[in-house]
Amino acid sequence: MSSVLAGVTSAKTLPPDPRPAAIYLASLADTSRRAMRSRLNRVARLLGHDRWDGVPWQALRYEQVAGLIAQLQESGEAPASINLALSALRGTAKAAFNLGLVEANDLARIQSIRRVGGERLPRGRAVTADELRALMQACAADPGAAGIRDAAILAVLYAGGLRRAEVVALDVESYDPGTGDLETWPKSGGEEGC
């Protein structure tokens, strides 16, 4: 665990105070409340607690919140999920300030933490001809067997219109050399593959 978070997780002298988070969550619509509670539970687990209502939220300061955001980034969470957690932490910090548990300077520092930039590629996006050409050129530049293997996989993916899960489920029996057909589901009466 990051040393940045040590001050919060080792703050056993401070009793858990769910009031800031509870007040923040109560201020939200039902649908938002579920999402933010989920994010606060994720943060609570990073801090070594089971649930959001076991965290001494009044102990969070700029360095801990910044450390939490960095830890979420390192764990590979999507930028949107990280920004949702940051919003939940900001709202909880504001509630803690309104309860007189956090100083104005500490709240301002937490509020100043920037949102995480970046985006994920949309699912199911078609590969363009230029992208396919670049991938095949990269495979051709690899003098080893991996380049040939990767080019073959790309060709099957592209020509067959297959998804990743379908390609990894293929085996030699999936190909009929007489007809050139490629079967992407089990032959023994199973359900159709991904």
Q: Quick gist of this model?
A:
The protein is mainly α. The chain is built from 9 helices and 2 strands, in the order H-H-H-H-H-H-H-H-H-E-E.
Instruction: Indicate the overall shape.
Output: elongated
Query: Number of DSSP helices?
Result: 9
- Our measurement of the CA-to-CA distance between the termini, rounded to an integer number of angstroms, reads 38 Å
Number of beta-strand segments: 2
Mean pLDDT equals 83
Largest sheet: 2 strands, antiparallel
- The rounded Rg comes to 25 Å
Structural class: mainly alpha
Q: Beta-strand percentage?
A: under 5%
Q: Secondary-structure element sequence?
A: HHHHHHHHHEE
Number of domains: 2
Keywords, please?
2% strand, 194 residues, mainly alpha, disordered C terminus, 2 domains, 9 helices, elongated
Model description:
The chain has 194 residues and is mostly helical. It folds into 2 domains: 3-111, no CATH class; 129-182, no CATH class. Helix content is 54%, strand content 2%. It has helices spanning 6-9, 19-26, 30-46, 62-74, 79-98, 104-111, 129-141, 145-160, 164-168, and strands at residues 175-176, 181-182. The chain has a two-stranded antiparallel ribbon with strand order 1-2. Strand 1 (175-176) and strand 2 (181-182) form a beta hairpin. Mean pLDDT is 83; it is low at 9-13 and 186-194.
Secondary-structure blueprint:
Blueprint: H1 6-9, H2 19-26, H3 30-46, H4 62-74, H5 79-98, H6 104-111, H7 129-141, H8 145-160, H9 164-168, E1 175-176, E2 181-182
Antiparallel strand pairs: 1-2
Helix pairs in contact: 2-5, 3-5, 4-5, 4-6, 5-6, 7-8
